[in-house]
Amino acid sequence: MNIHSFIFAAQMRIRDEHKEIIVKETALDMLVELGFDGFSMQKLAKKAGVSPATLYIYYKDKEDLIVQLGIEEGQKMTRSTMEGFSPEMSFEDGLRLQWKNRANYWLQNSVSSKFYEQIKHSPYYEKVMAVYKDEFKVKMTAFAKKAVLNGELKRLPFEVYWSLAFAPLYNLINFQMQGQSIGGLPFTWSEEIMNQTLELVLKALKP
Fold this sequence. Notes:
Elements: H1 3-38, H2 41-48, H3 52-58, H4 62-81, H5 91-108, H6 110-120, H7 125-149, H8 158-178, H9 191-205
């Protein structure tokens, strides 16, 4: 391959990668706006400015596209959530970091977060989680078990623990995304509100 052919091939690869990024971003926006039933490959091609045939270079069909996007967004979310985290941390330090990481990701990636919520309540969820859930599950389980053994956490059914540990955080995030709390009252996210809520959660979870 001569230098001109090499440059041309590199330029084509960059253009193809750029096109794929546009397809993914457009698909996420449309899936959040239209839902799974209202979304179609034909609508995506038109909105992204590509031919339908181009989409099938990247994905086998609509289901494959949704699952692949779910896996990618789930992996991004997991990496962000686990940044700096270790199962060996004290329960208070670990939970505090989890809240910070989760809040940062969800508030800075609202479209991806809304899409992932759609995935969680869809038939695609099992296929998505089958790819990357193991490492996350192992670390979070080890963290909770160690906290119980060290007397830092009450021994609770998993569902009760998870509801107490994380549901309050996601309620605050939902208020922020909606721009209001219960009854339409205005709501603005702040670290002070998050930390005040976290302190009450820690108090409820400690033996």
